[in-house]
Amino acid sequence: MSQNNDLTVIDRFTIFEQFNLHQRCIDKGWGREQVELYNRLYWPEAKFNVYDLRTSTFEGFEGMKQMFDYAHSVFPMDKWFHSIGAFEISGLGDRAEAHWRWFVSWKAEHVGTVSTGTYDDIFERRDGVWKCLERTSKSDPNWPIDLFQPFVDAADTTFKAS
After folding, report:
1. Quick check: 40 and 122 in contact, CB under 8 A?
2. Which of 13, 84, 89, 90 makes the best surface tag, with the fewest CB within 10 Å?
3. What DSSP assignment string belongs to 2-53?
4. Residue 3: is its pLDDT beyond 60?
5. Secondary element (H or E) of residue 74
6. How far apart are CA 94 and CA 126, in angstroms?
C-alpha cells in the first residue's frame, strides 16, 4: 500500500461505504436488480481477480455479473453472511488503495466461520465519484476445500444466469 495519503475523511468514508455496499449486495440475494446494484460499485472496465479454489479474472460489467451469478447459484449464499474486518485506505488525488479483511459466517444450520480472506483494491474517483477499478480477493490458507468442492463440482448443473 502507498504510504502517501492526502485523502480527506469524506473520501475515506465514501470508499469504506463501498466496502459495506459490496458485502450487503452479496447478502441481499440474487437476481438482475441485485446484479445491477452490485455492478454500480465498479467502473465499466473494472477487473476482479479471485484466488480461492480456482484462479479467475472477471472483467467489466458482464464479468462481474457472471461472478455474482456464479456465487449465488452455485453456493448456498442464503445460509451465509459477509462481514468486514480491519481495513486500510490510502491514496493521492483521484486514486486510492484499500486493503481489507473479509469473513463469511453461517447464519443458518451451523455456527462459525465459513471462510476468510483479503481484498486488495484500487479505487478511482471520476467526476467526484469513487468506484472500484480493480479488486483482488485472496482466500486465507484455511480455505475449507471439503466444504466448497462439492458445490464447485456441481456448478455445471446449478449455475443460472440472472
Report:
1. no
2. 13
3. -S-B---HHHHHHHHHHHHHHHHHHHT--SHHHHHHHHTTEEEEEEEEEESS
4. no
5. helix 60-74
6. 7
Closest CA to 72 of 105, 110, 29: 29
Amino acid at 155: A
CB atoms within 10 A of CB 133: 17
Residues 101/142, Cβ–Cβ less than 8 Å: no
Q: What is the pTM of this model?
A: 0.87
Contacts 24+ apart (CB under 8 A), 42-47: 42/131, 42/132, 42/133, 42/135, 43/124, 43/126, 43/131, 43/132, 43/133, 45/133, 46/131, 46/132, 46/133, 46/134, 46/135, 47/133, 47/134, 47/135
Segment 136-150, tens digit of pLDDT? 999 998 877 777 788
How far apart CA 96 and CA 12 sit, in angstroms, is 9
β strands within 107-158, DSSP E: 113-126, 129-139
